[in-house]
Amino acid sequence: MRTKMSIMGFHAEAIKPLNEEAAAELGANLLGEAIIFACAGSCLLLEFWRQQSLKHRKEVERTASLQSLRADMDRLEQALDELQVQAALSTTALDELRAEFRTELQELRTHVSARSPSPSPNPNTPQCS
Fold first, then answer.
1. pLDDT digit string, tens, across residues 35-79
2. Cα 112 to Cα 77: distance, rounded to the nearest angstrom
3. C-alpha span between 119 and 60 (Å, rounded)
4. Is the dihedral of CA 16, 22, 28, 33 positive or negative?
5. Least enclosed by CB within 10 Å: which of 55, 58, 72, 119?
């Protein structure tokens, strides 16, 4: 009875004793409510723990996915840089080859043009009559 009065917020100094049947019923009610309260609290704590665990698992998956995407992005950036370097080298090499080809072609033209204006018969070659 003192527990019930203190739970309800009353401060009774003197409480008359209850009969045995009323005390047993009041104790059974108090025990039943305590068990129900403990079960409800346990369910609430378990649900809270489950939600936190789920949230943590999703965060770990999100972090792993983000790291994977960053690694892929870094790999692709590196491949792009390599391709750009190769393209620049190819362009430079092509330009060098073109320039070399043009100079050789120019030399060949000058050589051919130098021979063409003065066709002189070679004395060692037989002439046809």
1. 999 999 999 999 999 999 999 999 999 999 999 999 999 999 999
2. 51
3. 87
4. negative
5. 119
